[in-house]
Amino acid sequence: MPLDEFRAANRARWDESVPIHMAAPTYDLDGLLAGRQKHFPRDIDEMGDVDGRTLLHLQCHFGMDTLSWALLGAQVTGLDFSTPAIDTARDLAQRLGIDARFVLSELYDAPAALDQQFDIVYTGIGALNWLPNIRGWAHVVADFLKPGGRFYLIEMHPVLWSLDAQRTDQELVVRFPYFERAEPRRWDDAKDYADPQARLRNSVTYEWNHGLGETVTALIDAGLVIEWLHEHRTIYWQALPWLVPAPGPDEWRLPDEAVDRVPLMYSIRAHKPA
Ligand SMILES: C[S@@+](CC[C@H](N)C(=O)[O-])C[C@H]1O[C@@H](n2cnc3c(N)ncnc32)[C@H](O)[C@@H]1O
C-alpha cells in the first residue's frame, strides 16, 4: 500500500476525532475557553520561558496545546494536516482573542507551506508515531528554527510502543518492533483514547515506531545540539491496563514493584547553534 493511502486513512481518523475530542472531558475545552492553559507542570518547566517568543507547534491537532503556549505568552503558529482540526483551532483562537496562525499542511510539506523561522519549535505527545520517517521530520524541525532557537519534544517512549498493551497479567512483553521500519503497524480499533464511549467509523490507522537512538541521531544529523534527554516513569493516560495513578495531576505509572523496569515517556530539549 503506498504511503499516500496510509496518510489518507490516518487523516480520516483525525478528522473524525476532532468533534469527539472537543467534547471529551480529558481535553477540557471549557477550561481553555475560560483562559486556563492545559500544559502539564513538568512540560512547562522543561520547555522553559516562552514569553514573547515565536513558537511553531508541529501536529497541533485542534490547537489546545498551541493556544496554551499562547496563554503563557508565546506568539504561536500551529500546523496540522487535518482540515477540521485547523478550522477548529482558528475558531478557538478567535474566541479567545488570541492572534494565532494555523496552517494546514502535511508535516513533510511544511517547509513549502510556511516561510518563516521560529524561536521555538514544539511537538507534543502522540505525534511522532504518525510519521514514517524520523530523519525527514528532524530536518523539518531544524529548518523552522532560527539560529539559536530552541526545540522541545515530549513524547511516548518507543519502548512502550513495542509492548503488548492488551496484557493484564502485569508482564511486560515485547510484541512489536522497536526500530523504525518502512512498513507501518496496522491498528484496527474504533475506540477513542479521549472518550471511552465513542466509536469511530475510521477504525484503521497506520503508525510507525522510532527508536530513541534513531530520533536523537536524526536531530543531531539535522544540525541540532541536544541539551538533555529525560526518560520518564509516568505518562499522561492509562497506556497499559495495569498502570496505577501517579502523584502528579493526571499521571499514571507502573506499580511499585515494576516502576523502574521501563520508561513510559521521554522528553528532549535541543537548540540550533547560533
Ligand atoms: C495526538 S495529536 C498531537 C497533539 C496533542 N498532543 C493532542 O493530543 O492534542 C496528533 C496530530 O498529528 C496530526 N498528524 C498526523 N499525521 C500527520 C502528518 N503526516 N502531517 C501533519 N499532521 C499530522 C493529526 O492530525 C493530529 O492532530
Walk me through the structure.
- The protein is of the alpha/beta class and 274 residues long.
- It has a single domain, classed as Rossmann fold, CATH 3.40.50.
- The chain has nine helices and twelve strands.
- The chain has helices at residues 3-23, 29-33, 41-47, 64-71, 83-96, 110-113, 134-144, 158-162, 212-221, and strands spanning 54-58, 75-80, 101-104, 118-123, 145-156, 185-188, 204-207, 225-232, 234-235, 244-245, 252-253, 265-271.
- The protein has a seven-stranded mixed β-sheet with strand order 3-2-1-4-5-12-8, sandwiched between helices. It has a three-stranded antiparallel β-sheet with strand order 9-11-10, with no helix packed on it.
- Helix 1 runs parallel beside helix 5 and helix 7 crosses helix 9 (212-221).
- The model has no long low-confidence stretch (mean pLDDT 97).
- The protein binds S-adenosylmethionine.
Task: Please outline what is shown here.
With about 270 residues, this protein is α/β, with parallel strands linked by helices. It is built from nine helices and twelve strands.
CATH topology: Rossmann fold
How does the overall form come out from the CA principal axes? globular
Radius of gyration, whole Å: 18 Å
Structural classification: alpha/beta
What is the share of helical residues?
Answer: 25-40%
Secondary structure tally: strands: 12
CATH C-level class = Alpha Beta
Bound molecules: S-adenosylmethionine
CATH superfamily: Vaccinia Virus protein VP39
Order of helices and strands: HHHEHEHEHEHEHEEHEEEEE
Q: List segments where confidence is low: pLDDT < 50 over at least 5 consecutive residues.
A: none
DSSP strand content: 15-25%
